[in-house]
């Protein structure tokens, strides 16, 4: 398959002709803030899989296109200059219709070009850590929470391990799952917290030896909790977890913060759950965030009545998992699920 043929195929996927009938691609692009379609979706099209095209080949082919363009990180593609989408025309050729006997028939038009639903394995299975060092300017105080949120919001990265001391800290990513261009972007751009720019570099040599010597035990504890949190977060009985379809119609505002989509908000609370010590009162900003979250609980008044503080601990009925607890002034406590609250939040937003 030549570069020119690959380019023409991608241009076809993003053409008015195709997007006016391709409901899946039309939806993915319309839900993207900047009109991009992730290349991973194109790679899942049957025709592309049959051609055995790689992401690198697609990237190289698009560079010469006059109809489509790459994102800065070269993981997505969009119509040139974010050209507006054509109107989606739903016809009997791109939706399910019913025969006279009521049997649902999936019309074959375009079905061969639809990406298959993606199934992911446990991201902590055989987790091979790639350790990064993050450092703030002299005299600037930051917390691991701020770093966690900055990585998510600025780089769309969720790290299972983040720590920060007085002058610098570390976070970990899975080496096999972190593309080289992501590493380059992290180390070249760093992260910004408030008005301060924090530097990031890969931890190597003696510096890495010192990390394992001083923080290895803490790292192992956090990764173990992250694995438990992942299992609690929805791996089904069959051991697989399907990606949730991102239900983004607009930015989500929660606790005076704007989130890209609901999964980003879920990851914030999963991170808090994974990194918190059992039975230790949660401090700000987590306390007020959980108060806001409980506003979406079916029994919010009961959970918040007489509230003293929040903690994390083993689930009373499922000892292998952990959850949040609302601890009362009289010493009693009530467990609750952040995922159930977020589900109600989704419903209230019409997502």
From TrEMBL:
Domain HTH La-type RNA-binding: residue ranges: 1-87
Keyword RNA-binding recorded: yes
Protease is among the record's keywords: no
Keyword line: RNA-binding
GO molecular function, one term: RNA binding
Domain of life of the source: Eukaryota
PANTHER family: PROTEIN EMBRYO DEFECTIVE 514
Name by which UniProt lists this protein: HTH La-type RNA-binding domain-containing protein
């Amino acid at each position: 398959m030549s570069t020119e043929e690959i380019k023409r195929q991608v241009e076809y996927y993003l053409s008015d002709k195709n997007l006016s009938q391709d409901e899946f691609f039309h939806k993915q692009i319309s839900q993207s803030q900047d009109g991009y379609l992730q290349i991973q979706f194109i790679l899942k099209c049957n025709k592309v899989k049959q051609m055995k095209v790689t992401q690198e080949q697609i990237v190289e082919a698009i560079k010469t296109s006059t109809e489509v363009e790459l994102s800065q990180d070269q993981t997505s593609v969009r119509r040139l200059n974010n050209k507006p989408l054509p109107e989606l025309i739903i016809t009997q050729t791109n939706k399910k219709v019913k025969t006279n006997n009521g049997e649902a028939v999936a019309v074959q038009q375009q079905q061969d070009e639809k990406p298959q639903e993606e199934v992911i394995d446990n991201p902590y299975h055989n987790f091979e850590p790639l350790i990064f060092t993050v450092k703030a300017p002299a005299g600037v105080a930051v917390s691991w929470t701020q770093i966690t949120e900055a990585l998510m919001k600025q780089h769309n990265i969720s790290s299972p391990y983040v720590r920060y001391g007085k002058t610098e800290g570390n976070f970990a990513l899975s080496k096999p799952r972190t593309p080289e261009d992501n590493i380059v972007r992290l180390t070249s751009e760093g992260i910004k917290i408030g008005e301060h720019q924090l530097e990031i570099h890969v931890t190597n040599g003696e510096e890495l030896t010192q990390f394992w010597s001083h923080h290895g035990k803490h790292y192992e504890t956090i990764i173990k909790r992250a694995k438990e949190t992942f299992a609690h977060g929805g791996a089904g009985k069959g051991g697989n977890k399907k990606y949730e379809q991102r239900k983004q119609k607009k930015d989500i505002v929660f606790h005076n913060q704007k989130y890209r989509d609901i999964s980003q908000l879920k990851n914030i609370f999963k991170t808090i759950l994974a990194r918190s010590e059992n039975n230790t009162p949660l401090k700000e900003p987590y306390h007020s965030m959980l108060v806001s979250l409980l506003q979406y609980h079916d029994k919010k008044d009961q959970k918040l009545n007489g509230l003293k503080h929040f903690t994390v601990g083993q689930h009373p009925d499922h000892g292998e998992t952990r959850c949040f607890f609302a601890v009362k002034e009289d010493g009693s406590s009530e467990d609750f699920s952040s995922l159930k609250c977020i589900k109600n939040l989704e419903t209230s937003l019409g997502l």
